[in-house]
């Protein structure tokens, strides 16, 4: 673009010369002193269409610089400005307006303080002024509220009490993660399910209907614990499970003045059922319907809940083997000679088998009464009675054992008897054969 500039000084001269100077000055005015260099003679408030930078400029009032106004193609441009002197400000409020703090950055200032920056990051209140920020919704004036002075954010509240205060429901599709510990979370894995995770592993789950699982993701009961439960030094009840203090409940106390216990109670009735360990006596006590029914002491099991005598304890249990024999006769050769017994308290239960198949036969010429000896214990023979039953293999008897239907207990032997009260003698037996039996007696 050619230069269209003038010093705007009309020299004295002939009419033609003066007219030419006036024409050149008017042409420079009409063309805004356009040119690729600034006018050589400059005036305050003078226009200059800078064809080199394609910018319309205005000379400042001090006549010592140019003010850039807009591009020659019509694009409006501004100076960068600052928060205290924005590039575009209000005439009566010159420290309120817009400016650019850096390339590709747009800033807004009020009262000389930056309020917002739009750039690589959108920033509100970067200078940290105590100025609150609020976003309104359709019907909620404080849909989003920033309490700058207290460093708090409120949702649907203008008075947040914590760093984030939500006045209403929060919807979360997956989980809440602990800040700085991303593998610890509260998760919502599916409908009606809440789970708790630590170190990336689920440790507890709540499901519908009203079930809590610890160590399991499929609780089958109101409280389902897979693993050990440790409760240390309970101050009152230890662990209580139930609907409320006035309803049925189960109570576990691991330590206390009386002792450790598991209590099963109903509304208004304590100790309806209880398993109690008494520290002072070192015994278990079992309660049913609020009464003591059974005790387990160091002496054994006492079924009478109020009896503490050691001799009444069911502590004597024993089992083992014994060797049955035929008494009152020359001993034959036994191919099988076995027996087993179980002793519970004062009762002894025995089974046995005697089989003579070869070698020395049973002396069937002996008229003595046939009896079984070798009992593991000597019983009470005051009433000469015990329980006896014969087994399947009875080939030792000539009649297959049909004549044997009772016995006489002598304390250390079992005498086989017939129905008429006579002894079964060895003369009624075969030389070879089996005999199996079971009996019980009292010590």
Task: Explain what you see.
Helix content is 4%, strand content 40%. By secondary structure, the protein is mainly beta. The longest helix is centred in the N-terminal third of the chain and has 16 residues, at 15-30. The protein is rod-shaped and about 185 Å long. The model has no long low-confidence stretch (mean pLDDT 86).
List the helices and strands and how they pair.
Layout: H1 15-30, E1 47-50, E2 55-59, E3 66-71, E4 88-90, E5 93-99, E6 106-110, E7 113-118, E8 122-124, E9 133-135, E10 144-147, E11 152-155, E12 164-166, E13 175-178, E14 181-187, E15 193-198, E16 201-207, E17 211-214, E18 223-225, E19 239-242, E20 249-253, E21 259-266, E22 269-278, E23 283-288, E24 291-297, E25 300-302, E26 317-321, E27 325-327, E28 336-344, E29 347-356, E30 371-373, E31 387-390, E32 406-409, E33 414-417, E34 433-442
Parallel strand pairs: 11-12, 17-18
Antiparallel strand pairs: 1-2, 2-3, 4-5, 5-6, 6-7, 7-8, 9-10, 10-11, 13-14, 14-15, 15-16, 16-17, 19-20, 20-21, 21-22, 22-23, 23-24, 24-25, 26-28, 27-30, 28-29, 29-34, 30-33, 31-34, 32-33
